[in-house]
Amino acid sequence: MATISKLSNPCLNYSSSTSFGTRSSSTPKFFLDLRTSNSTTFNHRLSGSKLSLVINPSIKGSLCVKCSQADGNGSSVKRTTLHDLYERQGQSPWYDNLCRPVTDLIPLIESGVRGVTSNPAIFQKAISTSNAYNDQFRELVQGGKDIDSVYWELVVKDIQDACKLFETIYDKTDGGDGYVSVEVSPRLADDTEGTVEAAKWLHKKVERSNVYIKIPATAPCIPSIKEVISLGISVNVTLIFSLARYEAVIDAYLDGLEASGLSDLSRVTSVASFFVSRVDTLVDKMLEKIGTPEALDLRGKAANAQAALAYKLYQKKFSGPRWEALVKKGAKKQRLLWASTSVKNPAYPDTLYVDPLIGPDTVSTMPDQALQAFIDHGSVARTIDSNVSEAEGIYTALEKLGIDWSFVGSQLELEGVDSFKKSFDSLLDSLQEKANTLKLVSL
């Protein structure tokens, strides 16, 4: 049922001047709060003749949709910078978060989001802090399911429901976009064959054409990626922190396509998730330890410099005779996906890992902070290869200062895998405690 509220609505707490225009203080303003049966909330602002969108920072993952009654309907959603990002620069904006109800994604899709990524840490937060999973959890536990099985049932339902929401985008782009990613158990990061079996099981369990099975880019999982791709399963390769490992990931994708034996490769796709902000977090600490003016001047520059060189490598690897032979069979490029795009250092601009990494055939997956910032004041222009020579200079300068890129990649990979394992284990422990309590109550 719709309700009208005055200007105390939390939408007003956001910036008074955004990329969607400025508010007029002379016009009477109200908010129409539409709460639908699927729990999706739209906040409609009735002021003037223009329709626009504003992120509501107090409602996670939601948008305030400002509408006009000038023409009596006010049903359209205004274009945002996310639409421009895709249509003008060929980069797909994805959302790095997933929780129930997945219908909260609807306003984001309308604002231009074209896919979703998830990971064990995201599900740990979603399931442990929400009551939305209680009914299914209770049913599974009372049905005799073990905790591992309960976890996957909860996760798979979210993934399936999200896949349904992005199905239209997937169909309209002929499988080019509209994906939802789900990761195999982080406990398998050092298990080649276990990862293959887990990917096969998860792909069959979800049973959606627009699902990406996430596999970490650890050395033991590089052969897993090749094998899974050869089976016709689309993969999001995650936790890539170095150029050397990225090249190994590309080769695994190409090897997998060639080994598949499929005459039509058009439905086997992949993205390579190259992490950015975490690189600066580690390298900045190393630079501060060095402490020279030259070193300190390079803070906040390592991640984007390496990313620019990753894009250069991408262009090189997906060209030439080998790639052209695969294109004839319908193969699609393994797109670079920029991950870890939220700013960890508050001294840096909040779009630091989005604005400078825009380029065709790429994906930028953004958590709430980065997504809201980019919609509000992001710049849409091709930037990823606008100054490759500068990126090469920064990369080399860091090496000369003693920054070992191999060490940086290995260390961040260890930290990433460990973080996901801890989130996974913590969630399973909390689910077990919850199940034990439920069983005691039912006795």
Radius of gyration: 23 Å
Approximate strand percentage: 5-15%
Total of DSSP H or I helical runs spanning 4+ residues:
16
Strand order of the largest sheet: 9-8-15-14-13-12-11-10
Helix content: 40-55%
What does the largest sheet look like?
8 strands, parallel
| Strands, count | 15
Structural shape: globular
Derived from helix and strand composition plus strand pairing, the structural class reads: alpha/beta
How far do the termini sit from each other?
A: 40 Å
Low-confidence stretches: 1-75
The overall average pLDDT, rounded, is: 85
Subcellular location: Cytoplasm
Function: Transaldolase is important for the balance of metabolites in the pentose-phosphate pathway.
Protein name: Transaldolase
Family: Belongs to the transaldolase family. Type 2 subfamily.
Model description:
- The chain is α/β, with parallel strands linked by helices and 443 residues long.
- Helices cover 46% and strands 15% of the residues.
- The protein contains 16 helices and 15 strands.
- The strands form 3 sheets. The protein has an 8-stranded parallel sheet. Strands 1-4-5-7-6 form a 5-stranded mixed sheet. A two-stranded antiparallel ribbon has the order 2-3.
- Strand 11 (211-216), helix 8 and strand 12 (235-240) form a beta-alpha-beta unit.
- The two termini are 40 Å apart.
- Residues 1-75 have low confidence and may be disordered.
